[in-house]
Amino acid sequence: MSNDGIKDSNYILCRGESETNRLNRQYNVVKKVLGRTNALPASINPKGLSKVLDVAAGSLVWTLDLARTPDISTRLSPESIDPIHLYACDISSAQFPPGDQTRKLGITTFLHDTTKPFPEEMKGTFDLVNMRLVVLGLSERGWEKAISNIHELLKRGGLLLICEFHEYFVRQGHGVKYEGGVSKEPFESYAHDWMTRTNAVMHRSCIDVNGFIPDLANRLPSMLAKASFQQESYAAFEVPVGAAATRQKSCQVQLSADEANFLAESYLLIHDAVWSDALKKGVLQGLDGPVDTEEGRLAVLDETSKGLTEEGAFTWWVEIVAKRI
Ligand SMILES: C[S@@+](CC[C@H](N)C(=O)[O-])C[C@H]1O[C@@H](n2cnc3c(N)ncnc32)[C@H](O)[C@@H]1O
Question: What superkingdom heads the lineage (predicted)?
Answer without folding.
Answer: Eukaryota
